[in-house]
């Protein structure tokens, strides 16, 4: 009997420890889903931005590599969310899986254009300009997926967990805004250079709005939220965020140059540095998120 009692106590202890472990695993899985889905909203814009820069003859080899990398990232993410990987569990909610299916359908159309661009077929300037609508559709569909995921899980989340999720969402939004800003800036140049007759006013106003939102977010993430947080931010994250903000201040001047005179012949001189600067800053943004996720 003593042995049986001991065995019972051991089993009870093991079972009771599984609850917190599963809860922790569920939280980690949720964070991974939020991060992965958030990152996807940027990739359609990144693809079109790189196509536009390459079409304009700017940093062609590297932008073609970015196109290939982006195609792989999107395809891999779609598979991870529906089938799972060694580190990411698949999404099982039927409604969200249906929404991801809608994303995949729109993505196939954009991917065909990317393949045509990379092949000998190529695309006309007008065709490249129209790709912005597909990237916008992809972003909206990913937003729907993100909102559905948040709605499904937010009811049972503690306030501090919700705050963490919002930080992850805002941080991933920064990549989306940065890529979209680069896309708009290049399309303004391409529309002007190709003399398609399309108005640039709406694109300039769109670019202004994107930059204003990015600027507000990066200031908030770098200075406001750490000051308001009851817990001191680790030095490594604080320094990384500050360095990223400084890099943004430099890149922002290139965007402002396009906004101030979108019809300038000198605009082509701004785009090579912008092409490199966007990818450099985007890498910094992802490094910052990785630091935050490790805390």
TrEMBL record:
<keyword id="KW-0732">Signal</keyword>
<feature type="signal peptide">
    <location>
        <begin position="1"/>
        <end position="26"/>
    </location>
</feature>
<protein>
    <recommendedName>
        <fullName>PilJ/NarX-like methyl-accepting chemotaxis transducer</fullName>
    </recommendedName>
</protein>
């Amino acid at each position: 009997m003593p042995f049986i009692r001991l065995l019972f106590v051991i089993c009870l202890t093991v079972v009771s420890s599984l609850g917190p472990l599963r809860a922790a695993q569920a939280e980690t899985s949720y964070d991974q889903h939020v991060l992965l889905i958030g990152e996807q909203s940027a990739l359609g814009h990144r693809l079109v931005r790189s196509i536009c820069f390459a079409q304009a003859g700017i940093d062609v080899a590297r932008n073609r590599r970015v196109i290939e990398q982006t195609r792989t990232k999107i395809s891999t993410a779609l598979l991870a969310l529906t089938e799972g990987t060694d580190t990411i569990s698949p999404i099982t909610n039927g409604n969200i899986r249906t929404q991801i299916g809608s994303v995949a359908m729109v993505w196939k159309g954009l991917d065909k254009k990317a393949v045509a661009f990379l092949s000998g077929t190529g695309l006309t300037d007008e065709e490249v300009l129209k790709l912005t609508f597909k990237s916008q559709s992809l972003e909206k569909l990913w937003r729907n997926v993100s909102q559905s995921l948040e709605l499904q899980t937010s009811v049972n989340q503690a306030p501090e967990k919700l705050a963490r999720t919002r930080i992850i969402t805002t941080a991933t939004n920064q990549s989306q805004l940065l890529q979209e800003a680069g896309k708009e800036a290049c399309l303004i140049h391409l529309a002007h250079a190709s003399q398609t007759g399309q108005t640039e006013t709406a694109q300039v106003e769109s670019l202004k709005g994107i930059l204003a939102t990015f600027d507000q977010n990066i200031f908030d993430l770098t200075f406001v939220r750490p000051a308001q947080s009851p817990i001191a931010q680790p030095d490594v994250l604080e320094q990384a965020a500050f360095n990223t903000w400084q890099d943004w201040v430099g890149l922002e001047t290139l965007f402002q140059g396009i906004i101030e005179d979108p019809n300038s012949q000198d605009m082509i001189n701004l785009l090579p540095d912008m092409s490199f600067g966007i990818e450099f800053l985007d890498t910094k943004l992802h490094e910052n998120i990785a630091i935050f996720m490790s805390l």
